[in-house]
């Protein structure tokens, strides 16, 4: 994994190098730069496959130059196909295959490749630039476009300047979500390319066109037996793991106490004759700790295992690194232990397989049980539910909040867009504009929720967390469950194969039982989280109160300051647990301070 940069803005070489050095952590093995005509290209390389300098970028072939971040897992198959067409290769990596594949097939190369990627190819004969982002948005892609001038980068920081202004709409969305979803960024005039989309820039015509090459499709449930489904899924998982184990540097896995990482590790252990290196983060608080289960998995699978325990001091020491690498406000507090996990992992391996994505496709999250219950509730006509609400005195009642929601799809949205909103102005137009597709694809409510999860949360929270935390320490994380073939296959399976009352991810459990006894892995789901509420009241209390002063709070667009201050006071007094909202504002304050961007002044 790497960092890419391309622009036609007339920066000097040193200016481009300074920009790239802001995100040098993404690719410490080589900083490459070239200028062809009016186009500057930059690249930061983390060498994983073909470590030779011949694979450094920008990489040139014929009339093309490419900067590429990610991995094409099936590049050997595409290479073989290109060789039958008469092409020869000077490297053993995927970059050369990608650019030569584009030379042959144009944008149709996107239908052939399986991987995580963000890339830009400059055709200097025809003065055109072609860019694309992978189907699930594993790799980041930011861009600026105005009046024929463009600038593209893997992260936001190099696109910031003294004139940068925050987007009030993005701040408002952040208050609800805890992140800024694509196509928005926290800055005005800078955007994210959405997953499964590509950009074609005509430099002569000064035009830019964005088109879609992949998306979730309407669900057609397979007529398939459970045993056959399990067999086909198992084969897909084995292949997804296998193609992600091609590496010229040491490889291991993240192993938590969950089903997904255990299954990935089990399959990887079967594929290789060598002992797999596995890594776990543990917590002293048993409510959050899965290290004992992970260690039991390790013993059964025969891995070289390392557990690193994380307390408040360990995590909070990483706040400066957090601010450096998460260059948009990002309020998923599990980013801190994720940073620690990658810091420890880098000492042993450079590539790590993870279980990310399993909960989305196989209905593993706790909220699926809420949806099962809510489905019955929302069959009651809305006017009756509204009338019932008149008799509930307690305004903070969760049941009363449910009564204000019109239908099950609105309830699904509220799962991802905070019910406990701090927004003075409620505006879901961004959901309707960019994410309403989830309502149209499946008849089953749980599948619709999974689809919104894949489109919204997976890309903008989970993938961002993993990418920035791993890149912070030059670790490449590969997630077999994010193989688009598995995403597509899982959606065609009957929901009952994946979810049964109080038994989530059934089909994965049954596959895992072929490697690990079910008595070991049938444990309550904890998730990868930290004791945030407690830390805010204790270790972080002084800094939180200093940051979240009246001057800062009054400058946050659309923030219900009165509501938040009450939440903050009650949390510190121990009468309520409002850690998530407090963390959102704390992270926003830290981001504003670190980047020297005043939210208030830019709004005027």
TrEMBL record:
A Gene Ontology cellular component where this protein is annotated is: cytosol
Asked if the keyword Magnesium belongs to this entry, the reply reads no
**Which reaction(s) are listed as its catalytic activity?**
L-aspartate + L-glutamine + ATP + H2O = L-asparagine + L-glutamate + AMP + diphosphate + H(+)
Q: Where is the Glutamine amidotransferase type-2 domain?
A: 2-204
Molecular function as annotated in GO: asparagine synthase (glutamine-hydrolyzing) activity; ATP binding
Q: Does the keyword Amino-acid biosynthesis apply?
A: yes
Q: What pathway does the annotation place this protein in? A: Amino-acid biosynthesis; L-asparagine biosynthesis; L-asparagine from L-aspartate (L-Gln route): step 1/1
Q: Which residues form the signal peptide?
A: none
Which keywords has UniProt assigned to this entry? Amino-acid biosynthesis, Asparagine biosynthesis, ATP-binding, Glutamine amidotransferase, Ligase, Nucleotide-binding
Per the UniProt record, the site (Important for beta-aspartyl-AMP intermediate formation) maps to 356
Q: Where does L-glutamine bind?
A: 94
Quote the Pfam families the UniProt record gives: Asn_synthase, GATase_7
Q: Which residues form the active site?
A: 2
**EC number, UniProt record:** 6.3.5.4
Q: Which family does it belong to?
A: Belongs to the asparagine synthetase family.
Protein name per the record: asparagine synthase (glutamine-hydrolyzing)
Per the UniProt record, the source organism is: Flavobacterium supellecticarium
Q: Which gene encodes it?
A: asnB
